[in-house]
Design the sequence.
């Protein structure tokens, strides 16, 4: 039994629960989960998945900082929900697609990744979704 994976699954689930409840602590739990999954994915030769966890860890630090800096605004710690302009959605989707193609190529020809297409697609879409958040 791999306790690292179990711990990662628990912290990942807790992150989602805290995110749904819009709790600032989600950023700490998300960062811990990302650090755990870097080890899990790297040990499984899923390099893009490990790399995207680095991105999630950095996003957790950034999210904590931004959320904390906005706590004093109007006495509320709730995040502001805004609509994304279509132009931003299209440009970021295009960049994610190009990133997917590059990752797929690198993983397919320069790594021992057992599933380069799936690994690249999941990494690119995960990064896009995190950027949108």
Sequence:
């Amino acid at each position: 039994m791999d306790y690292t994976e179990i711990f990662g699954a628990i912290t990942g689930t807790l992150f989602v629960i805290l995110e749904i409840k819009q709790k600032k602590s989600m950023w700490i739990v998300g960062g811990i989960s990302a650090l755990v999954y870097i080890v899990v994915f790297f040990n499984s030769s899923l390099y893009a998945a490990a790399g995207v966890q680095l991105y999630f860890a950095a996003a957790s630090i950034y999210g904590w900082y931004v959320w904390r800096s906005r706590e004093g605004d109007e006495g509320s710690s709730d995040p502001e929900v805004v609509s994304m302009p279509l132009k931003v959605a299209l440009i970021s989707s295009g960049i994610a697609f190009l990133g997917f193609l590059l990752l797929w190529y690198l993983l397919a020809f320069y790594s021992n990744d057992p599933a380069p297409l799936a690994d690249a697609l999941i990494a690119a879409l995960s990064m896009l979704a995190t950027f949108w958040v």
Q: What stands out?
A: The mean pLDDT is 88. Helices lie at 3-20, 26-43, 47-70, 86-110, 116-132. Residues 86-110 form the longest helix (25 residues).
